[in-house]
Design goal:
Number of helices: 14
Largest sheet: 8 strands, mixed
Structural class: alpha+beta
Helix content: 25-40%
Radius of gyration: 24 Å
């Protein structure tokens, strides 16, 4: 992939220019020179291969649900608002906005001169279409619950878009990034998945299922000077060990590095550590016996060793959790819950007996094959639960099957997964609201929890919001809704000439400022 001997490459390029000949060595030879803020990108190949674990579930941003999809496709799309790396928000396709004193009316001034990838101008009709589609208006299916509180939308002129809410919602702006409400062209209706079109820094080229997703530079991107890369290829490779070999063989330029193999690539590649801001959990279908019994869930919490998982699976690159929020969220996380269920086999056995299972029971844990960590965690779970008489069978299925059966179909007993990190405390805890049919795959139901999550949206003072979120986390821990194991770090390995990578509090390979430099 990327040439390692840059001195030789530059000589070759100079000769190529003089002779007006093309390189014939089979390597990447697309070059580009651009500048932003006075900085010039050298004439070096600006093509990157990024390894990801698996295919996207959808290319249509309104239908995608898997974090692995957004990791890639957010390079294609934009929303009225855009995320910052610290979890805050900035203006996106809206160049400014205003919120009324009663918190009900949001007025956005839309950027002018923005084009979709097909060359069409961004219009109010496209913005209205995008929100109508998400809300299921005009006869379509509703694609998001984020806009149930919207009373109306209107475009009084060619540069203004207004959203009116039924009730104040302190989290509403977070619903307006590309991850939740990408703006897409009305003219592409019916083709958003096969030919995705947005306004982002990269445009869709092709998708080869099981192989890769290819993007190219948006030459008409509204942010002057960006992007630097001419081509981005997301290569699908589920095996972490094989991915490291691909990095070392220069077949990929960016991949996550298995924790126990960091030492092998240290020094030869750039390594960066990203706090995942997600919650790695072992969880249950709470409508199926015996997991409908809180004492059974608590017993499993006492039996599973978080430290065994952190040390064995993550080589220590993780912090233990006690609820569905990472310390990356600062004051919003309720600290101390991580020690609520210190490992206690005898207490676990006693709770099982109280629940009516003195001899344990048999069950199955269904895990996805798209990342080795899930199978590795499942093996530790099996060993831990054997000690209290629970016999667990491991079922490994493909990622698409896991999504269909476990996430959407709720046809499972136990599973393990990491829940995607998000910038909003509400969106992190929103998964457990009983009426959130699209995300509450645990089928958790608790009236106090539902009320807290409704009340926090009406609260404007952050200190009081934090109190609400702390109590919500306590409920999840008390009810043993899951075994909250850890938030693990991701170690990214890149070609040494790759710069401009940005980390967000959610999964997103932002390629907009990435470049290869000498």
């Amino acid at each position: 992939m990327q040439w390692k001997k840059r001195g030789l490459m530059l000589v070759t390029l100079l000769l190529a220019i003089i002779m007006t000949a093309c390189s014939g060595d089979g390597k990447k030879n697309t070059t580009g020179s651009s500048s932003i803020d006075g900085q010039t990108v050298a004439d070096v190949p600006q093509e990157i291969v990024v390894r990801v674990n698996d295919d996207p579930d959808f290319l249509d941003p309104h239908k995608a649900t898997a974090s692995i999809s957004y990791q890639m496709i957010l390079n294609l799309f934009e929303g009225l608002m855009a995320p910052e790396t610290d979890g805050s928000l900035k203006e996106g396709l809206a160049e400014s906005y205003d919120i009324s004193e009663d918190g009900l009316t949001y007025t956005f001034k839309i950027r002018q001169g923005v084009e979709f990838h097909n060359g069409a101008d961004l219009t109010m009709e496209d913005i209205q279409y995008s929100f109508d589609r998400l809300m299921g208006k005009n006869g379509g299916e509703k694609m998001s619950n984020n806009f149930d509180n919207v009373a109306s939308t209107e475009a009084p002129d060619a540069t203004t878009f207004i959203i009116k809410l039924k009730e104040p919602n302190s989290n509403f702006l977070y619903s307006l990034t590309a991850r939740q409400s990408a703006i897409i062209p009305k003219s592409n209706d019916g083709k958003h998945n096969e030919n995705p079109i947005g306004t982002g820094p990269f445009t869709f080229v092709k998708y080869a299922p099981g192989t890769n997703l290819e993007l190219k530079k948006n030459e008409q991107y509204w942010q002057e000077g960006l992007p630097y890369l001419n081509k981005v290829t997301f290569a699908f490779q589920s095996d972490d060990q094989a991915a490291i070999m691909s990095l070392m063989a220069n077949e990929v330029d960016l991949t996550s590095v298995p924790w126990h193999r960091v030492g092998e690539v240290e020094g030869s590649y750039n390594l960066s550590h990203q706090n995942n801001n997600s919650s790695l959990i072992v969880t249950f279908n709470e409508t199926k016996a015996p997991f409908d019994n809180v004492k059974v869930r608590q017993a499993i919490n006492y039996a599973i060793s978080k430290s065994d998982i952190i040390d064995s699976v993550f080589a220590g690159y993780a912090v233990p959790l006690g609820s569905n929020m990472s310390p990356a969220m600062g004051d919003f996380q309720k600290k101390g819950l991580e020690s609520m269920y210190e490992r206690d086999v005898e207490k676990a056995k006693a709770l099982l007996a109280e629940a009516g299972y003195p001899d344990g029971f048999k069950t199955k844990i269904t895990v996805s094959s798209h990342n080795d960590i899930y199978s590795n965690i499942a093996q530790i779970v099996v060993a831990n639960l054997q000690e209290i008489g629970i016999d667990v069978e491991i079922e490994v299925v493909e990622w698409g099957i896991w999504l269909d059966r476990v996430y959407f179909g709720r046809d499972y007993e136990m599973t393990t997964i990491d829940l995607t990190g998000r910038a909003s405390a509400f969106e992190i805890l929103n998964d457990y609201i009983s009426t959130n049919d699209s995300e509450n795959f645990f089928l958790f139901k608790n009236e106090e929890y539902d009320k807290i999550m409704a009340d926090v949206l009406k609260e404007t003072e952050q200190a009081k919001q934090i109190d609400y979120y702390h109590r919500a986390q306590e409920i999840l821990a008390e009810q043993a809704t899951a075994v909250y194991i850890a938030d693990y770090q991701i170690v990214w390995g890149t070609d040494k000439q790759v710069t401009g990578l940005k980390s967000y509090p959610f999964w997103f390979h932002d390629m907009s400022e990435v470049k290869f430099s000498n």
